[in-house]
From TrEMBL:
Pathway given in the UniProt record: Cell wall biogenesis; cell wall polysaccharide biosynthesis
Origin: domain of life: Bacteria
Gene Ontology molecular function, alphabetical: glycosyltransferase activity
Keywords, alphabetical: Glycosyltransferase, Transferase
Listed SUPFAM superfamilies: Nucleotide-diphospho-sugar transferases
Identification of the protein by name: Glycosyltransferase
Lineage: Bacteria, Bacillati, Actinomycetota, Actinomycetes, Micrococcales
Entry similarity comment: Belongs to the glycosyltransferase 2 family.
InterPro entries linked to this entry: Glyco_trans_2-like (IPR001173), Nucleotide-diphossugar_trans (IPR029044)
Coiled-coil intervals: none
Annotated ranges, domain Glycosyltransferase 2-like: 9-138
């Protein structure tokens, strides 16, 4: 396997015990990451102390405000680029525990894939019972040609159109070329928008041999009674369809239809439709009223180091 510089990025928020497991999992990899970046999203527990104890050589960035997964991953990716000069950036949440061969399998797929346009690979995500997690099912690429699908199948992978931030890895030069996650999304659809933006111009793979355990409280999808967070699902989808270059015009038609079907399913299965109706109304209003703010505006004054902020402020090349 060719030598590649891989930086792991973990976004942490008030899950110190799980964070300890994640960091231990990174340390136990058969192919250990070359560096680790942890973004502490203003945790009120001692997550930062856990990082200093378990991973004392990690780059720790402590923010003064919670910027959500979107802001945390934007900062973490920028820190990886600013301080470690990686070839690939491997991202995960603080409840995502990688099995020992997870990174090895991702890198094997990178080297085995017969195509120079590969820019993202993702792990198979399971719950604590070993079943595939319904929250993190990768979206197969329905527009992939026969050659792309065949290249993926030849290495026991699947061609995908988007990936989850629950263990996915991105080529650093693709991040530089197409930009970082959009911090204003805060959470929900930030990984869909970001990965789909990169994969509109390159190939992506889901790699079943790379396994991580997503230790959520429940074995359920995000569309099961999301409560007030449904507002963010709606607002961010509107932003995605209005303002993002992630999808082609034809894809937008398909994904808009799919979103309405998903929202209908969410309403039908909900025990709190009043909250969902409010979230739908507010999310539509916010999504149509403005577009996402630049990362430099969202992340100003929250403790992002100057060298990292300078990378975030660069225009995509």
């Amino acid at each position: 396997m060719r030598s590649r510089q891989v930086v792991a990025v973990v976004v942490a928020y008030n899950r110190r015990d799980l964070l300890r497991e994640v960091l231990a999992g990174l340390k136990a990899q058969t192919r250990v990451p070359d560096a680790v970046v942890v973004v502490d999203n203003a945790s009120s527990d001692d997550s930062a102390a856990v990082v200093r104890e378990v991973a004392p050589t990690a780059t720790l960035i402590q923010l003064s405000a919670n910027t959500g997964g979107a802001g945390g991953f934007a900062v973490g990716m920028a820190a990886a680029l600013a301080r470690h000069d990686p070839d690939w950036v491997w991202v995960m949440d603080d409840d995502t525990v990688p099995e020992t061969g997870a990174l090895d399998a991702l890198l094997h797929s990178v080297d085995a894939y017969n195509g120079e346009n590969l820019c993202a690979v993702g792990s198979r995500v399971v719950w604590t019972n070993g079943a595939e997690h319904p929250m993190n099912t990768p979206r197969r690429n329905p527009f992939a040609g026969k050659a792309e699908k065949s290249r993926a199948e030849d290495i026991d992978a699947v061609a995908v159109r988007s990936l989850s931030f629950v263990s996915s890895m991105y080529r650093a030069d693709a991040i530089v070329r197409h930009g970082f996650p959009i911090a204003d999304y805060f959470l929900w659809n930030d990984d869909f928008e970001f990965s789909a933006r990169l994969l509109r111009h390159g190939a992506g793979l889901s790699v079943p041999a790379s396994v991580v355990v997503h230790k959520t409280r429940a074995f359920a999808s995000t569309d099961v009674d999301p409560g007030p967070r449904f507002r963010l699902e709606v607002r961010n989808k509107v932003w995605l369809f209005r303002a993002s270059p992630a999808l082609s015009p034809g894809e937008k038609v398909i994904y808009i239809g799919a979103s309405f079907l998903r929202w209908g399913k969410t309403f039908r299965s909900s025990h709190d439709r009043r909250t969902l109706r409010s979230g739908l109304a507010v999310g539509l209003r916010e999504g149509l009223a403005r577009r996402p703010r630049p990362n430099s505006a969202v992340l100003a004054g929250v403790g992002v180091p100057e060298d990292v902020l300078a990378v975030l402020e660069r225009r995509p090349s």
